[in-house]
């Protein structure tokens, strides 16, 4: 085989091989991009659901933090037991979209709310646990923001 024949065959097959390689790489990268896009869409939906529950719970805690009976409760505000139920349901349905740190923070908050529900009125004489709960809710919201890479 002469070198001229080799270059003729190379000129014919080179664009074909290049096209196949480029097509394969493009296909792999576009699939990865689509998967990441779908993951972030679901992650944002999960964040919005958890964020709404946490903000409503924080609004419920505020009148007790400031000991001001004239602060109005939000219409969406639920009791601690209802919030616990909503948070558990949201965590179960969205845990696949949260990273380990976010899941752990939400589960820790669920545990603290559960503990908080066991308090009686006389247990609040010298302390105000509402402030601690509001701080914990803020920490969980910050961790969720960090999970989204928005903050």
Topology, element by element:
Layout: H1 3-65, H2 80-94, H3 100-117, H4 129-148
Helix pairs in contact: 1-2, 1-4, 2-3, 3-4
Please, could you describe this protein's structure?
It is a single chain. The chain has helices at residues 3-65, 80-94, 100-117, 129-148. The mean pLDDT is 81. It is mainly alpha-helical and 151 residues long.
Number of strands: 0
Round the Cα radius of gyration to an integer and report it. Answer: 27 Å
Strand content: under 5%
Structural classification: mainly alpha
Helical content stands at: over 70%
H/E element sequence: HHHH
Uncertain segments of ≥5 residues (pLDDT<50)? none
Tally of helical segments:
4
* Shape designation: rod-shaped
What is the rounded distance between the termini? 64 Å
Mean pLDDT: 81
For the sheet with most strands, the description reads: none
Relevant terms:
151 residues, mainly alpha, 4 helices
The gist of it:
This protein has helices at 3-65, 80-94, 100-117, 129-148.
